[in-house]
Amino acid sequence: GDGVLAQEGALDERRSLQNLALYCSQLDPDRDAFSLEASAQYARLRSWPEAPVRERLLPLIDAARMYRWRKFRSKIYRNCTAVERSRAAGQACYAVRSYGDGLQRLLGDLDAGCPADPAQRLKDGNTATVWRTDLDGLGLVVKRYNVKDRWHGVSRVLRESRASISWRNAHMLQMFGIDTPAPVAYCMRRENPLRPIGYFVAAEVLGTNLRDWVAQHRDQADEIRRLASMVASLLARLRRLRISHGDLKATNFILSGDRLFLVDLDAMRLHRFDKAFGYAWRKDMARFEANWGDMPEVLEIVREAIGAVAQA
């Protein structure tokens, strides 16, 4: 209640709609249509014309949503109620407090949990190594962003680490109601100034990636349509928020039960300008459709589902 301000008389239309938009911005973006419908009743109760209220409300909801995100974004890089910041032996870490002291011990030597056998790792690439570990019975996934050589290290020093970008984007998606593995920690180790190594730790999500799932159900058109509708809804949310993913491979979608999770967030961007977003979105769509080049029947269903959501 420390942000409550009182004044004599009713709020004017501008302040009233800002208050209403701040409330609506806390609902998932796919509830914006409901908010606009409800605004008609609000306008009638205030004896205002309905059409101008509906017209003004959506941009105000967008602005309030971005305001809430900017305020929260600053907190995930400092000590706050939700996040604990720690420094030790050339390493800085930001960790979700609710995971307790066990997480801090794990972060003290993340590489200790990396399997020596590359075949046991989830991914063993030049620029990233991914493996699974446990924390008091809870499955976690660690992604280490490697430095290939000296020049690669120099280029990374001049840019924000991909681990930091993943940490931030995971929090952003959670705030906007989009399923992604819960962010647990982000660490940066700088034993060598030219070879910074970043780690992103997330909760494990058990499921099947989209490519494998489609391959298993390729001959079940109804099941493909059901999943295509889920994908289309997720993509519609991203588009509504002007978020581009940067690498929409089918393996970056994980189906777990009746939920579809988006992973690999280090190329994701939240765009301010329509033109830049439009260019990035077209690239995203081209990459996503390329997943189904050898499955034309699947591509047709996916295009139909995305088109139906776009017209809704």
Main sheet record: 7 strands, antiparallel
Estimate the helix proportion, in percent: 40-55%
User: In what range is the share of β-strand residues?
Assistant: 15-25%
Total strands: 12
Radius of gyration: 22 Å
Number of helices: 10
Strand and helix order: HHHEEHEEEHHEEEHHEEEEHH
Shape: globular
Span between termini: 38 Å
For the residues shown, what is the average pLDDT? 91
Strand order of the largest sheet: 1-2-6-7-5-4-3
Question: Helix- and strand-based class?
Answer: alpha+beta
Low-confidence stretches: none
Describe this structure as you would to a colleague.
By secondary structure, the chain is α+β, with helices and mostly antiparallel strands. Helix content is 46%, strand content 19%. The radius of gyration is 22 Å and the shape is globular.
